[in-house]
Amino acid sequence: MTANIHTILVANRGEIACRVFRTAREMGIRCVAVYTDADADAVFVTEADEAIRLGDGYLDGAAIIEAASATGAQAIHPGYGFLSENAAFAAAVISAGLMWVGPTPEVISTMGDKLAAKRAAAKAGVPSLPSSDDPTDAGDVGFPLLVKAAAGGGGKGMRLVETVDELADSVAQARREASSAFGDDTVFLERYVAESRHIEIQILGDSHGNLVHLGERECSIQRRHQKIIEESPSPVVDSDLRARMGAAALDLASTIGYQSAGTVEFLLDPSDGEFYFLETNTRLQVEHPVTEMVTGIDLVREQIRVAGGEPLGYQQDAVTFTGHAIEARLYAEDPANDFLPATGTLRAYQPATAPSVRWDTGVAEGSVVGVEFDPMLAKAISSAPSRSEAAARLALALERFHLGGVVTNRDLLASVLRSPEFRAGSTTTSFMDRVDLPGQFSRTRLEIEHSAIAASMWLQASRRDQTDVLPNVRSGFVLGRIPPQSTTWLTSGEELTIRYRSRRDGHFELGAIGEGGEVTIHEWRSDCIDVDCLGSRRRYRVSRHDEVLYLTAGHGTMALEAAPRFAVPEVDTPTGGLSAPMPGVVLEVRAEPGDHVTAGQTLVVLEAMKMEHHMNAPIDGVVAEVRVAEGDQVDNGELLILFDSNTNETS
Fold first, then answer.
1. Domain match, 281 and 182 both
2. What is the per-residue DSSP string for 479-506?
3. What phi and psi, each to the nearest 5 degrees, are found at residue 469?
């Protein structure tokens, strides 16, 4: 029984480790983490009651089991990704006398393998899309199709293939990604339906034969076949369709004797209302919080209870749904650069206190975002009586989130939630291609100027706070008239100079923007400033790193860098080349000096954050120099390929 679990080890990292810890502690269970050197300073490591270093990474099952035994853990929770759907690992955990928080190894073997799952679905009478076990033979699958990893999800090991000429290369890429992410390079082919909806049914089962579903989640808004917005209920699923999809999911789960939490995923064709089985995830899903919000059922708690031998304690008719919930995944990536992963240090990271939303996160201000793992930083989840209110609440929470130092998709997520297409429920899998949304917030000139004024006021108040001379005199007070002061800020590719003069009454006069005007500081702290600029009063959240200030006042975060007082000599760098857009490892080099290349041709393949990224020629030209080789570690901005100087266009 669950009472026998007093210590649990979470064989994962980041936000899911923190998420499991939260529920386990509420159940009175001690929490153990495992970590690698890259995660030595991570939030989940410091939150654990005890943490054990892994020398060979999160796929080292033997070391994880040894850590569980050494720390007195009775159970292992695998989270998602890594070894969560590895039947051999689950069996090894049980053989070691530990409780496995998940379905049985036999079920994982059947359903964790997407090919075996399709066969099980067919046996249960659940329709599936055409597919092929042989990744070299499109057969009856046809084009376009998807190459998919058999052992995992999350968009890793997945490639869209439009023609037969692309197949072999796409299969090779998918195999490498699948092997790196899941330790299994098995892939298969499946028919691709461009204009569809991704609907999944959450199921729960125990070892006493009880089995229920908790309704559906829609996860159609994706980029690179990875979900970024999820919601429950779906805007297009009515009670009849929900009942039919739920029954199909339970038929499949009953056929295989499913226990614990799991998800049965379907593709819904809006043209005729038919749905097709895609896969079963024998683990917790990233998007599980939206189901928790509308049902009131803590899925991690249910997983632990089932692992301890307890019955669910309720039947299908006891499951109720209230309101609407939406989740947005915050990624370190650049929407303006084909969603390539971004790295750096989070210099600002403070969710707003209002509106009230749930934040599942594994990072904090000061966390370093590297290339070793998936770039997801956090999930923001809102719930409300209606879909429109849930969307508005989540959008505002994202807009008011104090966030800086690393490029993210935050602005894009808020734009999605504010878009008329999302509000209308037009959320098919083609959403991101079909709807033209800005990757960054658009600000008026006045907003930019006010932020620069606020930054100048914060900076002068900070200097005043640090002085030992007359420390109790309010900021800006002077006995005589002094010359104007000025600060030049660099932001969004332009310079803004703010000139101001302190008045004897403690206010400030502006002299650089418009016709001047008055500025009043109502409150200053090291992390905020409440300032009235030209009659418009705003409260800014502020973080500082060296000469950069990050300011948030309800419409995203602006980074303003104080320009150096003296010009820094420029360093000559080669032009006309291909540079790395992120740190990573070189997997392939497909060019040699003297090669004639065309724009769009892949020249270098990088691996970063368990995904492959193709570096394509920006122009037609001749390769003059190749500066990297397979296996090299490269930094952001490092020159990979140099083109002949006779090439007119440069990158």
1. yes
2. SS--PPEEEEEEETTEEEEEEEEE-TTS
3. -90, 120
Same domain for 303 and 402? yes
The domain that holds 636 is classified in CATH as 2.40.50.100
The alpha helices in 435-496, defined as continuous H runs, are 445-465
Query: Taking the model in full, what pTM does it have?
Result: 0.85
Residues 65 and 195 in one domain: no
- pLDDT band at 133; cut points 50, 70, 90: confident
Residues 139 and 251 in one domain: yes
Which CATH number goes with the domain that contains 30? 3.40.50.20
Helix (H) or strand (E) holding 24: helix 14-26
Q: Distance between CA atoms of 356 and 498, rounded to whole angstroms?
A: 36
Query: pLDDT, tens digit, for every residue of 277-335?
Result: 998 999 999 999 999 999 999 999 999 999 999 999 999 999 999 999 999 999 999 99
pLDDT tens digits for 418-458? 999 999 999 999 999 999 998 889 899 999 999 999 999 99
Give the DSSP H or E segment for 189: strand 187-191
- For position 389, which CATH number holds? 3.30.470.20
In angstroms, the CA 471 to CA 316 distance is: 67
For residue 175, being part of any structural domain is answered with yes
Distance CA 366, CA 347 (A): 6
Whether pLDDT at 651 is above 50: no
Does residue 224 sit in the same domain as residue 358? Answer: yes
Same domain, 340 and 411: yes
Residue 254 — very low, low, confident or very high, per pLDDT cuts 50/70/90? very high
Can you tell me the distance from the alpha carbon of 266 to that of 245, in angstroms, rounded to the nearest whole number?
A: 8
Question: Angle 126-128-129 (CA atoms, 0-180°, nearest 5)?
Answer: 165
Burial of 353 (0-12, 13-18, 19+ CB in 10 A): exposed
The answer on 225 and 255 residing in a single domain is yes
Q: Which CATH number belongs to the domain containing residue 513 in this structure?
A: 3.30.700.30
Strand partners, 510: 500, 517
Q: What b/e string do you get for 22-59 counting C-beta neighbours within 10 Å, with b at 16 or more?
A: ebbeebebbbbbbbbeebeebbbbebbebbbebeeebb
Range of the domain at 191: 125-434
Alpha helices, H only, 33-86: 43-47, 61-70
Compute the distance between CA of residue 441 and CA of residue 399 in angstroms, rounded to an integer: 9
Helix runs in 339-435, H state only: 387-399, 410-418, 420-423, 431-434
Shared domain check, 602 and 522: no
Distance CA 530, CA 520 (A): 9
